[in-house]
Amino acid sequence: MSESSTKPALPTVRDAHGNTRSVATLFELSRTGRQGVTLPPLDEGADETALMQSILPEGWQRKRPARLPEVSQLEMIRHYVNLSQLNHSIDNNFYPLGSCSMKYNPKICDWVGNQPAFNLVHPEVPQALAQGTLGALYTLQAYLKDLTGFCAVSLQPAAGAHGELAGMMMIRAYHQRQGNTARTEVLVPDSAHGTNPASAAMCGFDVVEIKSNERGLVDLNALRAALSDRTAAIMLTNPNTVGLFEEDILSITQMVHEAGGLCYYDGANLNAIMGRAKVAHMGFDVMHLNTHKTFATPHGGGGPGSGPVAANEKLEPFLPKPTVEQRPDGTYWLNHDRPDALGQLKLFYGNTEVLLRALAYLVCYGGDGLREVSEKAVLNANYLKARLKETYHEPFTQTCMHEFILTSRHQRADNKDINTMALAKRLMDYGFHPPTVYFPLIIPEIMMIEPTETESKETLDRFVQAMVQIADEAKTQPDLVLDAPHTTPVKRVDEVAAVKQLDLNYFANHAQGAGN
Amino acid sequence: MLDTIGVDSIDALFSAIPPQLQGLCQFDVMPASGLDELGLQQFFKQFTEANLAHHYDCFVGGGAYNRFVPPAVNHIASRSEFYTAYTPYQPEVSQGTLQMIYEFQTMVSELVGLDVTNASVYDGASAFSESAVMAVRIAKKRHTLLVSKTVNPHYRAVLDTYTGVLDHINVVPVDLTADLEAQCCAVGVPPNQVAAVLVQLPNYLGFLEDQAMVTAFCKAHGALKVAAVDPVALGVMAAPGKSEANPDGADIVCGELQQFGNYVNFGGPYGGFVSTSMAHVRQLPGRLVGCSKDRTGKRAYTLTMQTREQHIRRAKATSNICTNQSLNILKASAYLSLVGPSGLKHLALLSAQRAHRLADQLCRMTGVSLMSAAPYLNEFTLILPVAAQAVVESMVASHGLVPGIPLSRYESYFPNQPHALVVAVTEMNTPESLDRYVYALHHALTQLGAQPGPEPRMPAPAAPGLPKSVMSRSVPSPHVPNHKGVVQHV
After folding, report:
1. CB crowding B74-100: b at 16 or more within 10 Å, else e
2. Domain range for residue B78?
3. Contacts of B169 in chain A (CB under 8 A)
4. Which of A159, A365, A424, B321 could cross-link B34 (Cys pair, CB 3.0–4.6 Å)?
């Protein structure tokens, strides 16, 4: 079991008593013959080997079993419980990760998502047997239309970037339908999420970057200069990724439309404006919503998500199919018969369980409640910003929306070794997850902070206290900051070595193999 | 808080939003006030009670399968620390998720017999499409993809959508049982312009098609092979990936992991994966977790090779994908560590045993046969003497049993197959339910005017029995409350 001294030591967890325990991989825990679940025997006392011979020709048969873990149920449970304790999560503590809307999701939404009557419905059963799910999805479509001001919604995309892909495909289909194949350029602000240019490129568009002005907003002159009869669309987040509402949004969408382009709205930051502005009213033609950010879903360590796409009359015919519709008798059906639809983007219909959680969230809050969600999110962000601006450099001074940016410029002026990454890592020692760092790319040494509406003033004050103290440490005990984190299960991880000596598979890189 | 900010009202914080936008922002459909938690539970009852599928014996597959989910899987997946964490961008506070993904990558790579597996994409269909586009990138100047006509129609539909916007990629559907060179020439594509041949093992119809022609074609013309696989089948099926031991294997293997610990959930969320060799790792889409060290030399995990990804490479990324399916692959990993290699093999065999028993019994009826003589595991396609759609309707209405997917549902991908029915069996379908299936099909065929032969023994009724009230009641229609809280149709 013990590895030779030349091998790196196994990571440890600190248990409730402050003791450390090793966390070996499942492959190191594995012992031949153990199994974590009992299963029914083959029918009629059949023999596995004989059955195998009778159903599968020799050439198709597996000769070497996969080296999957062989562990007892207790070992499996302990393994994953111990692993879980190495994670920071919303249910542990504050998680001010900008642009990710790491809010607390009411557990009642999980209760909805976990109903067996929803979970056990196979997507290929006759639709008469799935009327409840279809009815819930239809209701969600209606609410999302109401929330955004658009006339149609498709729930199919599996995540935000998938929704972007759908939207850009719809824009492409629209221009082609108009007989306009020369519109090959998509304008994207330099502050945009990386998925925006990547989604445009996946649709075969050329990406043209638009500079931001000194106030952190789209530079109208740069936009005007970039518009041409090659312009297919602009992709915008509003509020943008530095947390500012594009005040000139109506002029921006008008300019793009006058040039013959369409306007795509990236819904990643919708948490700022619910009940205050509808996206369709800003002049956008199509958008996606990140239901897993704005509404409820566990973020799950990076997914699943869901990225419904909403559109106006112009783009509605191109929405991915199927959509959920209602017959005059009140029953629901999946409409595949949409000739101009861009097709299917995912297996079956959408991430249904995630969508049900989103509906639960909307019903839980109601329209007034959603407006309050955005108000509180914006209030919390501005409060944090006001309290931190004395200590940290604030590139943009105007009122922010649901998130804001700071930099480590002041701290770097005192000690050029200090950088934003070091400050972020030091925050971990105070029990907080760091903000998003080094994004957007337009401001050096940036940190993007999004507190969300679910945090109390007391939590925000504790965060301020930590941030102020870290600024002080950077001045007085810089090594404490530069070597951070100190209290996490592992110390600063060597990401360069991870790329240079790629180790993506246990068996390919750890020759001793399983513990047998 | 407003004092600290230096404004006198919440409205002042929203002054950047043009007043005309704010004036227009009212909700007409959504109720103004939210529901309390008890009220919310009651609200959702109208939907859960209108779903009937879970009361039926279900023999439906086609890319998603009702399988046993050991309770320990959801116990682990509901741990707050996994459940409410985000993408592990900060490795020092995300080792749990990172190590879980690293172990997942290893387990799937073992199953498929390749070096490396990504940290998941949306589902099997997106994995298939991403694999196809990846193959074109690897093959550089070649732009044609040959896709087997027997691949899951959802996978083919998504591939068509993804490649439909990429003018340089040409997708040609092919029949794997006929000469591939001839099929290329028929559409004017020289075989040496083919980037990859895309197949599914077993195919959508449940059968394992002979791969000799594909292998010979790939060898002769330097094309890559991409295989979508059923991961449970890998418990008994030879690893499909190319290796020293299997030089004729696939260069890229992809698939859908729903069957490992995830419910069918009316289509999602599931989890797709893409596996390949280290030679092609730089072309993989999606996240990858690597094992490295921390500054004290301890083993530590981190996201790696991020220069392939959109948040670094932007328009030049290998894919636009960002969100993965971490929670779903946590379920898959927990599932695989519970069943282990023997359990996976056992479940594959048990499902196949029941599928073969069912197929044998059904094929004793006059006019009922298997569509192919090729080997199959837990899924097969029947040819019936009457329209499959009518049979499904009859068996659903009279027997509380969903017997499969009529192939005519995917007419555009499987034309002229009105009598074909795709049937899936898993360990969830009991031996008694197989007897009910045989009886019900005989009954349905007779009702529809066929003469299936001697009547099978009347089976025991389903226990605890489908409630009469469920069978007889008309389909209820849920309502949407309006903003005054009054229930109305929308």
Report:
1. bebbebebbbbbbbbbbbbbbbbbbbb
2. 73-332
3. none
4. A365
**Same domain membership, residue B274 and residue B351:** no
* Record: contact B290-A498, CB cut-off 8 A: yes
Residue A310 β-bridge partners? A153, A287
Contact B55, B471 (CB under 8 A): no
Mean pLDDT across A132-148 = 97
The SS3 assignment for B434 reads helix
Site from A62, A63, A496 to mutate, B interface, most B CB atoms within 10 angstroms: A62
Best residue in A13, A51, A68 for a mutation probing chain B (most B CBs within 10 Å): A68
Q: Whole-angstrom Cα distance, residue A256 to residue B146?
A: 40
Exposure letters B372-391 (e unless 16+ CB within 10 A, then b): bebbbbbbbbbbbbbbbbbb
With beta carbons under 8 A apart, name residues in chain A contacting B1.
Answer: 379-380, 383, 457
Contact at CB, B267 and A37, closer than 8 angstroms:
no
| Shared-domain flag, residues B83 and B205 | yes
User: How many beta-carbon pairs under 8 angstroms link A with B?
Assistant: 704
Instruction: Give the pLDDT score at A207.
Output: 95
Q: pLDDT at residue B207 above 60?
A: yes
Beta strands in B55-203 (DSSP E): 57-58, 116-117, 144-148, 170-174, 194-201
Question: By CA distance, what is B317's nearest residue in A?
Answer: A198
Q: Which of B115, B251, B332, B345 is nearest to A65 (CA)?
A: B345
Contact: A503, B292; criterion CB under 8 Å: yes
Per-residue pLDDT of A341-388, as tens digits, reads 988 999 999 999 999 999 999 999 999 999 999 999 999 999 999 999
- Full-model pTM: 0.95
Does residue B347 belong to any structural domain of this protein? yes
Q: Does the distance separating the beta carbons of A158 and B268 come in below 8 Å?
A: yes
Residues B276 and B182 in one domain: yes
Cα B205 from Cα B380, distance rounded (Å) = 6
